[in-house]
Amino acid sequence: MNIKGLSAGLTLAAALSLVAAQAFAQQGGGRGGFQLAQVVVESDAFDDGGIIPDRYVSRGDNVQPGFTFSNLPENAVSIAIIFHDLDVALGGGTEDVFHWSAWNIPAAAGGIPEGGLPDGAVNGPSIRGQPGYVGPGAPAGPRYHHYVFEFYVLSDNLDLPATATRDEILTAMEGKVVGKAAYVGRYRGSE
Fold it and tell me: Which of 108-143 are b and which e, b meaning 16 or more Cβ less than 10 Å from the residue's Cβ?
């Protein structure tokens, strides 16, 4: 190949690379992520990644912790929460322990108070099959279980009964998620 052909080939390769990079960026790739809002979740109950106090565990007072939300996108209408224990696989399968869910929490509320939900929110089912929060219950042992509160910021409310399963909640959220955050707590029972 001569210099002129090599130069033309490099110019074409550079142009194609630029087009591919622009398409990747428009689809949310690169350093900008997937263009979801970087929602901030905070709690006075325990630090993110910290040990969950007995007040919030099922063997303790079993009080639902409060959270505040900030940096929500302008099109945020509601928040949905899924709370689960990552360190358990039930019945030989891949499902973990589904501790609690809530949805249609008004984005304008800016969070949820300790022990309750704002007006209009739906208190979904727990591991017990009844609506309401069920705190961590890991047994005593050498390591902590990781409990995750997943917060989905939605552009609409969900039209679901209070008995909806995790799969039904996730399906209903499809196409409505405009932001997401997670808050993790660790817990192990005492001997």
Answer: ebebbeeeebbeebbbbbbbeeeeebbbbbbeeeee
Instruction: Find residue 147's DSSP bridge partners.
Output: 85, 185
Global pTM value? 0.81
- Distance, in Å, from the CA atom of 169 to the CA atom of 178, rounded to the nearest integer, reads 15
Output phi, psi for 108, to 5 deg: -65, -20
CATH of the domain at 156: 3.90.280.10
- Give the tens place of pLDDT for each residue, 84-143: 999 988 888 888 999 999 999 999 999 999 999 999 999 998 888 889 999 999 999 999
Could you tell me the residue range of the domain that residue 68 belongs to? Answer: 36-187
The count of C-alpha atoms lying within 13 angstroms of the C-alpha of 138, restricted to the half-sphere facing its C-beta, is: 26
* Cα Rg, the chain, nearest whole Å: 22
Q: What pLDDT, in 10s, does the model give residues 138-175?
A: 999 999 999 999 999 999 999 999 999 999 999 999 99
Number of structural domains in the chain: 2
